């Protein structure tokens, strides 16, 4: 057996790159685009509104997920979407040098978002078809790690690199054109690589079914979801859990970049990349790990209320930064890190709650519904955040973010969760 054949059969040859590739377009569209447009002179209201709307494909992706099953293979959809994402990033890069760059680049980024959400469906489906259950469990942590690495690349490396290029050329348009071009090449290379390296599992074939029966199955899945116990409360909880964070995430970057006279901290793009993409992401990851540990020890029910407070209270760090406008980079980094840690810690409870809602029949589809509702909550809250901030200023805006935690606290007392859900079961041994 040749080296290439052996290499292709090894999941390590494609799982890390597949999930790194999955994370790159998401972080570029959702987070990096905010920094890019701010650096290119777009106002906060427009940035928040339109970059939030870019999240729409992730909200509605369950609507077209059946078509991924019906037409072609998951493998085909995976590398095709990667190639289209690369071409779309190239289109966005070219448009940055045009008079109407904001509108035209948004169109290309929307195509990226649509293809990326479709890629999520195909890649996750392929993962389950290409690996047995034991290997799926083994590589789930690897998936998460490389998706996080993509986040670090986007929020950290790419933003820092954009700042460095801009500092050397005094041309932010050129710097962001370069970044988008780099991402475009990366995605096209990954598409070619995965077209070659991805295995061809026997189960990866189009689902043969009549259109009517397929539609009926989809509708039945949705009906079963709506018949779940306390589903209305669950939907409200999912929509409201990140109400504050959904607004904060859209304005955190612009706040760090804005001049001090405008109420911001006046950081450079490079400094923002370090604060958010390196220090912040490290704190986020550590917070998520600790959140998962405490839930596994004590269960979701015990930690739900504490985590609601922990994901929201650290947002006061941004009010502190807006009120005092410290100049110390260490102080700024520390406070942003505190907020990110709280976000990661509290988000662990949110993920477990969605798993709790999805359990039972159709759990894969129902979890997709939950994540779509989560994305919808982020979209709606983020869309109005820029307008609110421009009306009241940064300091008052961050107070509003803290107030936005109240609605989910009103709903939470009515949420019922099994006592031991999420708690790691003790293993019993016999000798």
Describe the 3D structure.
The chain is mainly alpha-helical and 431 residues long. The protein folds into two domains: 9-198, Growth Hormone, Chain: A, CATH 1.20.1250; 228-416, Growth Hormone, Chain: A, CATH 1.20.1250.20. Helix content is 79%, strand content 0%. The two termini are 43 Å apart. The mean pLDDT is 87.
The end-to-end span amounts to: 43 Å
Unreliable stretches: none
C-alpha Rg, in Å? 22 Å
Share in β-strands: under 5%
CATH hierarchy: architecture of the largest domain: Up-down Bundle
Average residue-wise pLDDT: 87
For the sheet with most strands, the description reads:
none
Domains, number: 2
- CATH class placement of the largest domain: Mainly Alpha
Total strand segments: 0
Jot down its keywords:
431 residues; mainly alpha; Growth Hormone, Chain: A; 2 domains; 79% helix; globular
């Amino acid at each position: 057996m040749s080296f290439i054949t052996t290499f292709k059969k090894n999941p390590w040859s494609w799982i890390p790159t597949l999930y790194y590739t999955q994370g790159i377009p998401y972080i570029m569209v959702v987070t990096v685009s905010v920094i890019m447009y701010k650096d290119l002179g777009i106002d906060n209201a427009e940035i928040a509104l339109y970059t939030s709307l870019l999240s729409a494909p992730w909200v509605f992706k369950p609507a077209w997920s059946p078509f991924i099953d019906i037409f072609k293979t998951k493998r085909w959809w995976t590398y095709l979407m990667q190639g289209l994402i690369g071409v779309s990033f190239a289109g966005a890069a070219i448009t940055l040098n045009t008079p109407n760059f904001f509108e035209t680049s948004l169109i290309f980024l929307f195509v990226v978002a649509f293809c990326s959400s479709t890629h999520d469906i195909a890649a996750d489906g392929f993962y389950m078809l290409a690996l047995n259950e034991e290997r799926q469990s083994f590589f789930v942590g690897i998936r998460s790690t490389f998706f996080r690495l993509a986040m670090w690349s986007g929020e950290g490396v790419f933003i820092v690199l954009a700042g460095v290029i801009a500092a050397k050329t005094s041309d932010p348009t050129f710097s962001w054109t370069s970044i988008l071009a780099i991402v475009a090449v990366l995605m096209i290379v990954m598409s070619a690589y995965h077209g070659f390296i991805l295995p061809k599992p026997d189960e990866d074939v189009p689902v043969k079914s009549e259109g009517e029966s397929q539609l009926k199955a989809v509708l039945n899945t949705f009906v079963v979801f709506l018949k779940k116990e306390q589903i209305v409360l669950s939907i409200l909880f999912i929509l409201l859990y990140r109400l504050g964070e959904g607004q904060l995430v859209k304005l955190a970057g612009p706040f760090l970049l804005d001049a001090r006279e405008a109420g911001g901290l006046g950081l450079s793009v490079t400094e923002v990349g370090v604060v958010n993409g390196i220090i912040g992401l490290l704190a986020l990851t550590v917070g998520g790990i600790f959140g998962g540990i405490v839930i596994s020890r004590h269960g979701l029910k015990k930690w739900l209320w504490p985590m609601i407070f922990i994901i929201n209270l650290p947002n006061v760090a941004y009010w502190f930064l807006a009120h005092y406008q410290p100049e110390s980079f260490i102080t700024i980094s520390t406070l942003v890190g505190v907020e990110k840690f709280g976000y990661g810690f509290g988000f662990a409870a949110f993920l477990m709650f969605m798993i709790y809602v999805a359990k039972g029949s159709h759990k894969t589809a129902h979890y997709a519904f939950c994540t779509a509702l989560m994305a919808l909550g982020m979209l709606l809250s983020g869309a109005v955040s820029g307008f609110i901030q421009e009306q009241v200023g940064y300091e008052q805006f961050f107070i509003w973010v803290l107030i936005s935690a109240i609605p989910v606290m009103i709903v939470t007392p009515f949420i019922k969760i099994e006592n031991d859900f999420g708690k790691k079961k003790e293993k019993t041994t016999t000798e």
